[in-house]
Design goal:
The complex is a heterodimer.
Chain A lengths: L8 H38 L2 H6 L15 H32 L2 H16 L2 H19 L11 H25 L3 H9 L4 H12 L1 H17 L2 H6 L18 H10 L7 H35 L1
Helix pairs in contact in A: 1-12, 3-6, 3-9, 4-6, 5-6, 6-9, 7-8, 9-12, 11-12
Chain B lengths: L3 H6 L5 H9 L5 H32 L25 H32 L5 H14 L3 H15 L6 H25 L3 H9 L4 H30 L2 H4 L21 H10 L3 H32 L4
Helix pairs in contact in B: 3-12, 4-7, 4-9, 4-11, 5-7, 6-7, 7-9, 8-9, 9-12, 11-12
Classes of the chains: A mainly alpha, B mainly alpha.
C-alpha cells in the first residue's frame, strides 16, 4: 500500500508565501482604486459632476478657476485620433506582411527590429517629436497658420509610430492563428495572395485585429511623456485644431504633479479627478480588448 | 507554405516540373501594388526608428564624452557646457536595483502560485488572472498617482528611492508574472509527473525541476520588464524626481533623479547646450537598453531548452 507522503513542515509555509505574493497584485488594484476614489469623491464635494463634464474651460491653476474636463478630453482625442490614423494602416500593413508575405527567416529578423520601437522610452519619442519632427512639419505646412511650437499633431504622429508594434504584433498573432485550411481553400479557388490576405485572413482574424486596435487606443490615451513634451501643458479652452498646443489628461496630471501643490487643496485634488477619468476610459478599453482576444482564441485554438 | 500546397496535390511523374507550372504566377499590377504598400508600412516604421536614433547620436555627439559623468553644476545656466548626468546615472542604478530586488521575487512567486499551485477552476484564481491582465493595461501615470496618494503620503515613504522602486515594481509586476508563467508552462508535464512519482513534494518538484528548467525564459522576461522600468518617466514625475538633483543618492530614503527624468528636465531648458546634453543622455539610455535587450535575446537563444 502506498503511504501518504509525510507533510514537510516547510511546504505549508512556502505555499502561504506564494499566496501572499499573488495577493500583491490584487492589493495593487485595490490601492489604485482607493487612491483614485477617495480624493475624487472629495473633489466632487467642491465641484459638481455636471460642471466637471459640461464646462468648456479647464483652469484650476489660474485665479479665475473653471473645472471643465472637456478641453483635456478633446486634446486627448485629437492626439489619439492622429495616432490611430497613422498606426492602423502602418501596423496592419506590417502585420499582414509579416504573417502572410515574409519568409520565416525575414520575419525572424524584422519582428525584433519592429519590437525595438516598443522598447524605446517615451521621453525619447517626445524629444524626437519636439526637436526633429516639429520643425520639419512647420516647414512643410502648406498654409500660413503654422502649427505651434508644441502641438497635438506632432505628438500624435510620434505616438502613432509608438503604438505600431502593439497593433502589429497582436494582429499578427491573430492572423497566424487563422487555420491554413482557410487559406488553402481560397488558393484552390484561384485567389491571389492579396485576395487571400484581405478577404480571408483579415476577416477571419478580425476580432483579434480589433482587440489590437483597442489596446493601441488605450495605450495612446494613457501615454504621458510624448504629449507632455511635444504637445505641452497649456490648459484653457477646447483646442479647435490639432495644430494647437494643449494639455491632454495625462499631460495635465504630469504638469500639476510637478509643482508642489498643497495636499488636499482643490488644485491637488484635480490630479485625482482627472486620473479617475483616465482610468475609467482605459479600463473600459482594456476590458473590451481582453474579451475580444478571448473570442478569437476560442474560435481557432 | 502557399507554393508547396498546390504541388502537394499533384500526382505527376515529374514533381519538380509540375510544381514550377503550378507556382508560376501571373503578376497582376494590383497584387504588386499591395505587396509594395505592405513593405512601405514596414519601411515607415523602420525609417522612423533609424531617424530617431541617428538624430539623437548626431545631436548629442559633442557631449558623448567624459563630461557625461559630471554632476549638474550649481549655477547651471552659466556653466551649461560643463554639466553632466552623474546623479541621474547613479539614481537610475539605485532605483532599478531596488526595483529588481522587489519585483522579481514577488513576480516569480506569484507566477509559481498561479502555474503550480492554484486550482484554475476556482473563481478567486480566475479573478487573480483577470486582475493581472487588467493591471498590465493601466497607464503608468496612474501608478504614479498610486505612489503619490498612498505610498509617498499615507505610508509616509516620501519622495525617495524606495517609493520610486516600489511604484516601478508594481508597474512591471504583471510583465514579470506573465513572462514567468509562460516559461514555466513550457516545461512539460511529464517532468513534474516523474518527480512526483519519485515521491517529491510539490515544492521539491517546483524548486528542483520546474524552476531550473524555466530560468532562461524567466530571465529573458525579467530583463525586458526591467528595461521597461528603466525607461519609464511618467510615474516618477509625480514622485518628486523632477527637481534638479545634484547629488548621488546614498540610501533608500534619499531623494533621487533618473536618466529619463533628467532627460525630460534638460529638454525643458532653453539653452542649446542642455538640448545637446539631453541628446547625449538619450544615446546613453538607448545603449543601456540595447545591451539589456541583447542580453535577453542571448539568454533566450543560448539557454532555452526545446522540449
Amino acid at each position: 500500500m502506498v503511504r501518504r507522503g509525510r507533510r514537510r513542515p516547510g511546504e505549508r509555509l512556502i505555499e502561504t508565501l506564494l499566496v501572499v505574493a499573488a495577493i500583491v497584485s490584487i492589493a495593487t488594484t485595490m490601492g489604485i482604486v482607493v487612491s483614485l476614489v477617495v480624493p475624487t469623491v472629495e473633489f466632487f464635494g467642491h465641484v459638481s459632476v455636471v460642471e466637471f463634464l459640461t464646462e468648456t474651460e479647464w483652469t484650476p491653476l489660474f485665479s479665475d478657476k473653471h473645472y471643465g474636463v472637456v478641453p483635456l478630453l478633446v486634446a486627448t482625442l485629437w492626439v489619439t485620433a492622429v495616432a490611430i490614423v497613422i498606426a492602423i494602416p502602418v501596423g496592419l500593413g506590417a502585420a499582414i506582411y509579416l504573417s502572410e508575405y515574409a519568409a520565416p527567416r525575414t520575419r525572424k529578423i524584422l519582428k525584433p527590429v519592429l519590437e525595438i520601437l516598443a522598447g524605446i522610452p517615451t521621453v525619447v519619442y517626445g524629444f524626437f517629436a519636439l526637436t526633429f519632427l516639429n520643425p520639419r512639419l512647420v516647414d512643410l505646412w502648406p498654409s500660413a497658420a503654422k502649427p505651434e511650437f508644441q502641438n497635438l499633431l506632432v505628438a500624435g504622429i510620434a505616438m502613432g509610430i509608438m503604438i505600431v508594434p502593439t497593433i502589429a504584433s497582436l494582429s499578427e498573432d491573430a492572423m497566424s492563428a487563422v487555420p491554413h485550411s482557410l487559406r488553402e481553400g481560397a488558393y484552390a479557388l484561384a485567389s491571389t495572395k492579396a485576395q487571400v490576405s484581405t478577404r480571408v485572413v483579415v476577416p477571419a482574424a478580425l476580432s483579434g485585429i480589433v482587440a489590437a486596435i483597442v489596446l493601441g487606443v488605450s495605450r495612446a490615451l494613457g501615454e504621458t511623456m510624448i504629449v507632455t513634451i511635444a504637445a505641452g501643458l497649456k490648459t484653457a479652452g477646447v483646442p479647435a485644431s490639432p495644430t494647437e498646443g494643449a494639455a491632454t489628461m495625462t499631460a495635465y496630471i504630469a504638469g500639476a504633479g510637478q509643482g508642489d501643490l498643497p495636499v488636499s487643496s482643490l488644485e491637488y485634488l484635480t490630479i485625482f479627478a482627472v486620473g479617475s477619468t483616465l482610468f475609467l476610459f482605459t479600463f473600459a478599453l482594456n476590458a473590451i480588448s481582453i474579451r475580444l482576444v478571448r473570442t478569437f482564441r476560442e474560435v481557432y485554438e | 507554405m502557399t507554393t508547396a500546397t498546390p504541388a502537394h496535390a499533384a500526382t505527376a511523374s515529374d514533381p519538380a516540373r509540375v510544381r514550377a507550372e503550378l507556382t508560376r504566377r501571373r503578376t497582376r499590377p494590383g497584387d504588386v501594388a499591395f505587396r509594395l504598400a505592405l513593405q512601405l508600412c514596414l519601411l515607415v516604421a523602420f525609417a522612423f526608428l533609424i531617424a530617431l536614433i541617428s538624430f539623437a547620436v548626431y545631436k548629442g555627439w559633442n557631449r558623448l564624452d567624459a563630461r557625461l559623468w559630471e554632476n549638474m553644476p550649481t549655477g547651471r545656466a552659466s556653466r551649461a557646457a560643463a554639466a553632466g548626468v552623474q546623479s541621474a546615472i547613479t539614481g537610475t542604478l539605485w532605483v532599478i536595483g531596488l526595483t529588481a530586488a522587489i519585483c522579481l521575487p514577488v513576480g516569480i512567486a506569484s507566477a509559481v502560485y498561479l502555474e503550480e499551485y492554484a486550482d484554475n477552476t476556482r473563481w478567486y484564481n480566475r479573478l487573480l488572472e483577470l486582475n493581472i491582465q487588467n493591471l498590465a493595461g493601466v497607464p503608468s501615470i496612474v501608478f504614479g498617482i498610486l505612489g503619490l496618494g498612498l505610498i509617498a503620503r499615507v505610508l509616509g515613504l516620501g519622495f525617495t528611492v524606495a517609493t520610486a522602486a516600489v511604484v516601478l515594481s508594481l508597474l512591471v509586476l504583471p510583465t514579470v508574472i506573465i513572462a514567468s508563467r509562460e516559461a514555466m508552462r513550457a516545461v512539460p508535464r511529464s517532468i513534474r509527473e516523474a518527480s512526483y512519482a519519485l515521491g517529491a513534494t510539490r515544492w521539491q518538484t517546483t524548486w528542483r525541476q520546474v524552476l531550473p528548467a524555466a530560468v532562461p525564459g524567466m530571465a529573458t522576461g525579467s530583463i525586458l520588464a526591467l528595461s521597461r522600468a528603466l525607461g519609464e518617466a511618467a510615474p516618477l514625475i509625480l514622485l518628486g524626481a523632477v527637481t534638479f538633483i545634484r547629488f548621488n543618492p546614498d540610501s533608500l530614503l534619499s531623494s533621487y533623479t533618473t536618466l529619463p527624468i533628467q532627460i525630460y528636465n534638460l529638454i525643458k531648458e532653453p539653452q542649446a547646450e542642455f538640448q545637446e546634453l539631453a541628446a547625449a543622455a538619450i544615446v546613453l539610455l538607448l545603449v543601456i537598453l540595447l545591451l539589456m535587450n541583447s542580453a535577453a535575446i542571448l539568454v533566450r537563444n543560448r539557454f532555452q531548452k526545446r522540449w
